[in-house]
């Protein structure tokens, strides 16, 4: 037996391509599921409210510092407001992270994949998503959202993420709203 | 600017037309199916995200191979590759000839791995996948003559290695005969 160029080319092509390759790759172009879209929308609403609250705080402090120039109050020197703004910023960052994680989880699910680690982590992310959505609903109520809207959104958390800490929190909070 | 439908259609066409070819090249570059799967997925994920940057749809094939090549370089820099040459996708352990075939595939891949990427890539893209020398020169960013010479040298090296590893006689080089 001898080796010629044709033989080498044939050996080079002797590879079995997985039968489900195209199916897996096509998953990238599929639209996000409605669960992810709605979760994202809900979280973005919470984030927007928090961002508005942060802006209002900023303007209030600015006006306050103009009015009370003798007290020299600024955002940087008022520890309580600095802390509150810090908390709001942290919450916005967390919401961003949860949105990102929900998308990553969706993608991992679609890949059906080679990374079992991603699937294990996904369980934790569902818990976190539920908790953050219910907490952001609670914040939304405190920031002036209508109780009816908050109740409806929390009911969705209970329905979509049953048996999670977020769903339990939502259930307790709805009961609290209804008794008030 | 491309709309979502056009982008999706283009992507789906790309998967149908090029996924198998990219997979074969990925397998030859990485030496195992798991790494090839990951490399192809990364390549298509990047393609999906950056599809709007592709100005000329007719250059899709070259563009995809450029992404694959860049991804492979990144992975090669980041991690040492784990090779699993003895695990075929479809195993038939009772079939002796199938075992021999798998063993040969492993040996062939080991021989191919001894080539550096400069010599391996032209072999994979031109000999294995049938790209034109000009197209490969453009993808790799080197002159046409360089591709031709790397192709020739790559083949010769591979024949020499295979001869040593498998004990097969190489075919006489016609150029050598002509020179005599």
Task: Describe, in plain words, how this protein is organized in 3D.
The complex is a heterodimer of chains A (180) and B (180). Chain A is an all-alpha fold and 180 residues long. Helices cover 77% and strands 1% of the residues of chain A. Chain A contains seven helices and one strand, in the order βααααααα. Chain A has helices at 5-13, 21-26, 34-67, 79-111, 116-142, 147-160, 165-179, and one strand at 2-3. In chain A, α5 (116-142) packs antiparallel against α6. Chain A starts with a strand and ends with a helix. The model of chain A is unreliable at 113-122 (pLDDT under 50). Chain B has 180 residues and is mainly alpha-helical. Chain B is built from eight helices and one strand. In chain B, α1 packs antiparallel against α2 (33-50), α1 (4-30) packs across α3 (60-78) and α5 crosses α7 (144-166). The longest helix of chain B is centred in the first third of the chain and has 27 residues, at 4-30. Chain B starts with a helix and ends with a helix. The model of chain B is unreliable at 80-96 and 173-180 (pLDDT under 50). At the A-B interface, β1, α1 and α2 of A face α1, α2, α4, α5 and α7 of B.
> What is the percent of helical residues of chain B?
over 70%
Overall geometry of chain A comes to elongated
Main structural class of chain B:
mainly alpha
Separate helix tally of chain A: 7
Distance separating the two termini of chain B: 60 Å
Mean pLDDT of chain A: 72
Mean pLDDT across all residues of chain B, rounded?
78
Count all strands of chain B and give the number. 1
Please summarize the sheet with the most strands of chain A: none
Rg of chain B, alpha carbons: 18 Å
Q: Could you state the order of secondary-structure elements of chain A as H and E?
A: EHHHHHHH
Instruction: Tell how many strands the DSSP assignment of chain A holds.
Output: 1
Instruction: Tell me which oligomeric state these chains represent.
Output: heterodimer
Percent helix of chain A, as a range, is over 70%
Q: Tally the helices of chain B: what do you get?
A: 8
